[in-house]
């Protein structure tokens, strides 16, 4: 990450704003440690003064920090994932179909530097950058399953800051003030995404080590809570994970099937469904058993030993 006492000038377009130019400015502000001045204009003379120019100017030249995608030829599309040439229902030769918008162009050059990790930058590109670019480029990446009901995404959030006709919709000063507020919000979102993904990467190493050291790889015991689903989904053996819960309780959770959101590899016995306290203790023989979810994917006990007993009983169960 660079440090410069002089403010760098970021130029973007005036008028209505969208998620891609908001996030592009936010990313550059993070890159420059907040030492930036944002100018919103379409005046070519002012545009030429920018250290960074995003979403305006008609030029994509990363060497000169010019990041527009509105020129006739666009600014390119992302490569297809390895071994795939499909994007949605369309065949796309060597591309995944999502064009680069200003956020993606900035992230393509500076994402790794901003995150301090190529892996973290790539993950955030898939999670946040590509959907933002797709929305700005009119590329659908999901479908509504319920008529007249749509997801409320980050673009909807940013749109709420645009002044209404009663608040001075065409008042440039008013719109610019709202834009800066939204850039601050986008910075917080992007910084939190980076922090969370960095933490996940650290936890991946710890979970991997725990898996490798486990004698019975069907039952993975984490002495402290760690996000484990991403790592353990890669292995076929794990069925249950023991981890601490709030208020000194412990839980046993069934491992999700790889590629699924909710389906588990092996559920807890059907006779435990929805039972609590004494009822669950009587059925299982585990004196400090507290709760089994009605959908049979998680059990809770007062003690570490109790959670392990519940998991071992479930391993032996045929249900």
UniProtKB/TrEMBL annotation:
Under which name does UniProt file this protein?
Metal-dependent hydrolase
Question: What protein family is recorded?
Answer: Belongs to the MYG1 family.
Source species, please?
Candidatus Nomurabacteria bacterium RIFCSPHIGHO2_01_FULL_42_16
Region named Disordered:
69-93
Quote the InterPro entries the UniProt record gives.
MYG1_exonuclease
GO cellular component labels: cytoplasm
According to the record, the segments passing through the membrane are none
Top-down, what is the taxonomic lineage of the species of origin? Bacteria, Candidatus Nomuraibacteriota
